[in-house]
User: Fold these one by one.
Assistant:
Number 1:
Amino acid sequence: MILGRFLAGGLKSPVILISMLVILGIGVLVPVLNLAVPPSSPFHVADHLVPLYGKYLCYGMAALALDLVWGYCGILSLGHGAFFALGGYAMGMHLMREIGTRGVYGDPILPDFMVFLNWKELPWFWYGFDSFLFACLMVMLVPGLLAFIFGWFAFRSRVTGVYLSIITQAMTYALLLAFFRNDMGFGGNNGLTDFKDVLGYDLQSGQVRSALFFLTAFFLALNLLIAAAITGSKYGKILRAVRDAEARTRFLGYRPENIKLFAWVVSAVMAGIAGALYVPQVGIINPGEFAPANSIEMVVWTAVGGRGTLVGPIGGAVLVNAAKSWFTGVLPEYWLFALGGLFILTTLFLPEGVAGLIRKAFGRRAKAPKGKDEETDQPVADATAGE
Amino acid sequence: MTEIPVKIPAEPKSAPKAPPKHAPVPSARKDTLLYLDGVSRSFDGFKAINELSFVLMKGEMRAIIGPNGAGKTTMMDIITGKTRPDKGDVFFMGDVDLTKHDEPTIAQMGIGRKFQKPTVFETQTVADNLLLSLKGERRGIPALFYRSNKPDRQRIDEILEVIRLERRRNELAAFLSHGQKQWLEIGMLLAQDPKLLLVDEPVAGMTDAETEETARLLRDIAVDHSVVVVEHDMGFVRDLGVKVTCLHEGHVLSEGSLDHVSADPQVIEVYLGR
Amino acid sequence: MPLLRILALAVTLALGALAAERASADEAQVSAAIQKFATADGFSGVEATIQELGAIGDPLAVRALRALGENELKVTPDGAVVIEGADALLDPVTGETVAEKGPRLERIRIKNSIRSMIDETISALTLRAADPVVRMSAADTIFAAADPEQLEPVQAALAAEQDPDVRRRLEQAVAAIQLASSDDPEIIRASIEVISQRGDQAALGVLLGYRNQATGEMADAADEGIEAIETRLAMWQAGQNIWYGISLGSVLFLAAIGLAITFGVMGVINMAHGEMVMLGAYTTFVVQETIRNSFPWLFDWSLLIALPLAFLVAGFVGLIMERGIIRHLYGRPLETLLATWGVSLILQQAVRTIFGPNNREVGNPSWMSGAFELGEMSITWSRLWIVCFALFVFVALLFAINRSSLGLQMRAVTQNRRMASAMGIRTPWVDALTFALGSGIAGIAGVALSQIDNVSPNLGRGYIIDSFMVVVFGGVGNLWGTLVGGLTLGVANKFLEPYAGAVLGKILILVFIILFIQRRPRGLFALKGRAVE
């Protein structure tokens, strides 16, 4: 009841409502065009494109998650890839367990890589992942818990601005190194792959692919609604107040560390869900997902789309990744030039991203003056300011 | 803030000492709203506050004057928990030791502060600025389920009327003039409904008319609140017509009526000039 | 400065080894004697020739004797005695290539009794070699083998030996032999004493070998000796770890110091800093290529030539970055971070396009290759020079920042930008030069790193996070902080490695720093000042 009213708050903005309908529409349309329209038709969506589009939507969800903390709370996370990957690993672990005896070594309990490493029994942290529901819980719990612990310490000690960005980067880097180790029990370098099916349905079948695509669209729409409800509530106003003048909110009696912590954890959980939906569609999860560069790339999706707009980053993620697919197909050497240029041009000329551009084009008065960076006017040298 | 150990002097030199918790309030602090005694704070050897003692009674309004660097802002920082004193006692309502609490707790106890440089939430509307300041729930998650209600709306309307920003309620605070931002910040103080208002240079950058308005506003507020005003503008201080404390180099130079203080030769020497 | 003295000592030692090129007068005599193998008549002829070589007593004959023992000494169809190498024929005395490998080589036949004669002759020859280093290594060989047969020649050599160092080695060799062969408890105890004083890995091996068969008191004595050696070795190991740590720390320092300057003065994080390092490394590569192709005799100078060029190249790119991008983003540190990341991607891809994606070969000049031993530690010249270079850069920067007018202005801007601006310092100018300076220093760090790391387009990636950790740990805007931060992290890393492994050690360091920032958000050596808000 309360929850319903809370979510309804997210629908106040027509932009959100329309965007949700569009996302759900795509979620239905793509599977229909793939399954029901004959391959000869120009409207047919090829089989390999369904998971590709699904991947874009997952990236969109990650960008949305990032926007919640960067756009509304001023936390530039350079480590959201870690939450994404952790969600992915949690789902991947379940899919590994579902392989059962169909692995190369045919061991009913141990995944192939463990047999290969001569392990005798399943490590304790793999317990429970044979249950789909448990895995789904972990998809949200593990990134959420990591975010909670990290945020608890970081926000409490008032680490902000670039310092915070750098330690989020260090966090994902440390995880990258950790997951590369074979001893960790997550398949080391190769990660988790060779998945067969999910809930008993063959992952390679067209129906399952389409179902996964629809699910991704559904969760994206749902997360958009949740994010809109959060940012539209009074809490959202507090969040923005913390972003713009953290010290001031403290003198009003708010605890910015707790305010930020909530958004941070929600955002991490969203990124985890995105990762979990990503893995069955892509068919692999490996430590590369933790690479610092991945997390920074997520930032550019959000920046291109327009931070602080929720819908923009989703579009940004789709746009940038579609461009990436095109470049890697046609001009592979130039992709990094394009991506690098995108970083520079967006920050220099499009601080509000494409969404800001569209808003301007439609002649609506810019809703807000440029959001202030938290460290503006506060040179690093002013040491005691941070104490 | 947590890493600065709260230093409690090993041997308090002056008479009133910090009592054990829940001990009866010593008579010296009875009926005081704010009680500072022997407070010192130095930054890298520079004594911003030096053996400062300052008492504010319940319901009182006080003006603080003093040259730049006299320690006015540091004193506010200490009261609001932003800065810990190196030594000395700071008590609120007679028995709450402010040196043991942080900013949000102190704010929730009922000490509101207006900054020297007006700080309002520029990307939000005037009404939302007041909504965020309204006394009440300060936790995040209940705020998710907050629903606009009649008492809150009425209170915001009242304050908007007091600070004369009714017609700009839905505009972004960033678009207000400097003086209007000062008023909005005073309005935010009112919305908090604190027991004690600390007002740092409320009329800096205001026109004469605005200054007069502000003095009237503060006098109105002082009817049912205790107020400490820091101000350089002597005309404004005279308008307030309250007891004045003059700070210099971190301690009290002179205290009394404005006429008394401004006649003090020391005050003339260091502050007013001849 | 003790460090300088150690350095001077090390250089003297190395030069001494080179000068000790033995001046052998009887090279011709040895050569003539070896030639007799070609005409030797049967086994007895060979034996006679070996005896003759032993009588000459010049260790130059050792090479030929070894080859003889391994059936590699051959006679060519035209009657010359040569060693058959893997792919050429070698002179039996000098070991230089004398001819292509040809067919129809005749082997000089030997039998087992001749083989042991050869071995004895070799040991005896090397124990009497002119070069004390050779004598020492002969003694060490005997020490490790501990063959009772050798006792007599070693004792004879010991009686004749003058050099105290070689004497000690010979005494140890005698002790090892006695330990293996004697039954007299007194002699054994004394031998254990001598061996445990030697205190290295070989001594430990000998004692452990003895311990396995010893019983009673002798076993206890051996245990004592083993413990003494192990303690000593552990200390040297710690010393070696400290050295590795200092070496890694100076690399981290070099990579981070430019970043510390730009971050300190401008509050800007330059994510392309690692790429500046990479540019410096590639500059070294280009300089070396040019030298290889056109001026090969300059190769030993290549690094000195590359240093200023790398500084200019990276500094210039930095200047363009500051003027073109960063100054437009002043006051928006997070956006700056993203834009510089974009620059880093472009620089990486540009280098990949120009030089290819693979590692490029950057050579070590002769004075940077090789290693020397210090006690039980092995120190490579390249690492040693990098540590020296890091110290040099540190002192130079300290001097520049504390003494030059740009340094003064930089410090002013670091401490209070608005005030500095009000005092008439042209802060944009200071920013641009600071950024160029920081980038330039990254460039010369790249020259140093090219000596110990793979030069590839990804070179910078490996350093960027570590550099940030150093800067953040040491405290922003403080050269000493960066030095201490770099060295601390380097040493900590190397000490964790043996216990936790390289990767886990690194993770632990990262976690430590993440926690450390929580406690001290401004680093070890934070600039102090009254809060201005």
Number 2:
Amino acid sequence: MMEKSELTLNQKIEKLDEKVEWFYSDSFKLDEATNKYKEAIGLAKEIEKDLNSLKNEIEVLTEDFSK
Amino acid sequence: MNNFTPTEFIAVVNQTLEYAYPSALITGEVASFKINQGKWVFFDIKDETSSISCFMSVWNLRIPIEDGMKVTVSGVPKITKWGKFSFTVENIKPVGEGSIKKAYELLKKKLTAEGLFAMERKREIPTDLVRLGIISSTDAAGYSDFIKIINARWGGIKVTVAHTQVQGMDAPDQMIRALKYFNEKSDVQMIAILRGGGSADDLSCFNDEQLVREIAASKIPVITGIGHERDESLADLAADVRASTPSNAAEMLTRDRNEEKAKLARTMNRTYQVLMQTIERVQDNNNRSVKRIFDAINTKYIEPMLVANNDKMKNCLKIIQDAFSNVQNILVQKIKVLDALNPERVLSQGYAILSGKISPGEDIDIMTARQEIKATIKDIKERK
């Protein structure tokens, strides 16, 4: 099962790129492929959820820059 | 009637002037401009009929000034101890297109020679931007445009906003303080200086020498989104990245979440295809290999024994056939599992994938086998 990570959205996308890269690499092994694919699908779903729901946090400083 | 000494009278007049004009603005043409001992600046400001002597420190001279330039000065009137009238200037800025352009060119030449705008000084936008500082007026349209666009495009960024003036004589100092704040007291990865369009006079604060130097000296990379495409300020030249407008800055700093979603679907579909093709290839190889072995055994040992009607060998043949069938079944099952995971297969059967918040009034995305649809939810009812 995929661990719920504290990675940022960009980091998750990078991680997915690495997972997908494995399928095109010399490290590819058929008996590992199903699990790797399930992991990639899980991460892709997490990324899609983040893309739909993540909001920016906006804070206006209370400092007075006129002084 | 009062009887004063000269010192007393000058003090009283200065008190009266200070009370009447705690700060005054004068606009006129510069004449007899000179700097003494690298510290003190003297010039006259005049119109067709009158002239006023002005004095200021070099520290307050934020932009190059020459005779003939039209300027606005702010400061206080004063009588010197020699009884001469003088205007102590706190701030000076060129006004009118010709003077603004002249001052801009002079300062650009000076700072270019110092290497402040050199390309090798430029740093890139961080690839994983999650902490952003903004210097802008929160009342400005340019700021609102920026926030609207980054919210639509991307999420997960902590945006810290320093509200400052972005126009007028006080604006450069306020922006300098905000730059110092971010550099000394924050962990932002990038600073965006934003201001929408305006006249050359409105944008002239971005040509302030100290502000430009502060931008160039910033430890944190700076992006500017000031004015329109055609406007180029010295702040733009000193920044690491120049965006043509605040909206353009938002686009340069963030990726588009809709493009990323489409890319994600394409990547996973392509990966699935690679996996399927590999499994099919391996299955074909396995089938051929097993068949070759089976044929060899059959030809060399089994057929002769069958001819001899040997029951033991008949059993052997059945075991081998069953084993071969099992290998085939395992591969078929694996392919079925993978096939069931493919979203394209589900879509091809007439289903659709919905994404977004399921709530009345919310916009959602609908993906079918052939179309990507945007829709708004009107009503939701629980199924009975």
